[in-house]
Amino acid sequence: MEMRTGQKREKKDKPKPKKQPQTQYDHIVMPCIHHNSSQTPSESNLTHHLSLLHHPKRSVRLDSHSSLSSSLSSSPSYGFVSGNYVTLLFHCLHSINNGTQKRPKVSKFEICLSLRLVSLLAINLDAGGDHAHQVFDESIPSLSRALLHFESSLSDSDIVVGILDCLGFLGFFGSTHPEEIQSVMLIIWDSLTKNGSKWSDLIRFKAISAWSFLLSSMPGSHVSNKYWKSVTSYFLSLMCDDGVALAVDDALGLIFEMGFLNKFEEPAEEGCSRDKLKDKITDKLRGLAIEDRGKKLKVLADEDGNGDGDEDGQIPRTIKIAQQVKDGLILSKVCEIIQSKFIRGFLGPHGFANYLQITAICKTFSNLLEGEAKRMIKAVRRCC
């Protein structure tokens, strides 16, 4: 075949890349990663993993994500988190929201990692501060949608547990007033009462624990009169359920400790005295193996002085509970027991011990270290 000289081969135009549609996160400006010459080796390692979150290889991204979660779970890094929380939050929310699409481009493992990392952001930022509240505001809508998406799926229990953990920590550390806390409690409560019969024991236990964890952060006088009228009867119906009995015990004990029992009763039960309601609980406990519940309820007795007081000024009767948790901390209040167990269950024994040594986190849950910080820290170190 004769070649024609001077003839140029036509080049096909390359297709132009499609413009990606805008998302609700486009308003978040991705900041530069904060590199600080005075960083500790641990912070430098975290910064390195942060820089790899957008690596082209998916396996590298997942490894970096996992390393960040593992490092922040084992010990706090307030400086690193406060300098890079927007970058981390953007990445996590993008993964969580992508996971709720019809054709998600992220794995369930990545969604779980993102949920855990958002929880760790809340714990590491100043509780109730501007940064923590920003994380709260940006995250709650996404988590609420994610819970609605995954709550009825029996194969996504790990994701649902991660969402419940995250809601608990965001409400506890990121909210600035009781109404915000109760808005998160309502998200959890609505999902629990709607799906509880289908959920595994683990998810139900986590939902009740997260709800109680949030309730423990409020004084009884700030609890709404309209949201929680069915709580007492619902928990009484679960006291014989071995799968959630421990969490129910904690929740009922907290309600008695707070006082204002009328805020948690059905209108038909409001005439029932506190003594009669306590007798109902006592009767149920007599038929159960309390020893198998870790001997949590050591004394059921009428005692004055621990509750916030009724609206008519009368001091409520309370259930006295004494418990020594594994970390060696002697906790006399139900709210302290609930808070320490929830945080310890999330961080693990080693991580919880390390976080206890930083007073910032402890000032939030009932001033746990106040007055006895050295004794408690020594006890934690011995146990770990």
Furnish the topology, listing elements before pairings.
Elements: H1 41-51, H2 58-74, H3 78-98, H4 108-124, H5 130-150, H6 157-174, H7 178-195, H8 201-215, H9 231-236, H10 245-258, H11 274-286, E1 323-324, E2 330-331, H12 334-356, H13 359-364, H14 373-383
Antiparallel strand pairs: 1-2
Structure description:
Among the domains are: 221-321, no CATH class; 322-331 and 339-384, no CATH class. It contains 14 helices and two strands. Residues 17-35, 288-327 and 359-384 have low confidence and may be disordered. The protein has helices spanning 41-51, 58-74, 78-98, 108-124, 130-150, 157-174, 178-195, 201-215, 231-236, 245-258, 274-286, 334-356, 359-364, 373-383; strands at residues 323-324, 330-331. Helix content is 55%, strand content 1%. A two-stranded antiparallel sheet has the order 1-2. This is Interferon-related developmental regulator N-terminal domain-containing protein. Residues 1-25 are annotated as: Disordered.
Task: Give a short synopsis of this structure.
With 384 residues, this protein is mainly α. Helix content is 55%, strand content 1%.
Number of strands: 2
Average pLDDT metric? 76
Strand content: under 5%
Stretches where pLDDT is under 50 for at least 5 consecutive residues are 17-35, 288-327, 359-384
Form type: globular
Rounded to the nearest angstrom, the radius of gyration is 25 Å
The total of helices stands at 14
| End-to-end gap | 84 Å
**Strand arrangement, major sheet:** 1-2
List keywords for this structure.
384 residues, mainly alpha, two-stranded antiparallel sheet, 14 helices, 2 strands, 55% helix, globular, disordered C terminus, IFRD, ARM-type_fold, Interferon-related developmental regulator N-terminal domain-containing protein, Interferon-rel_develop_reg_N
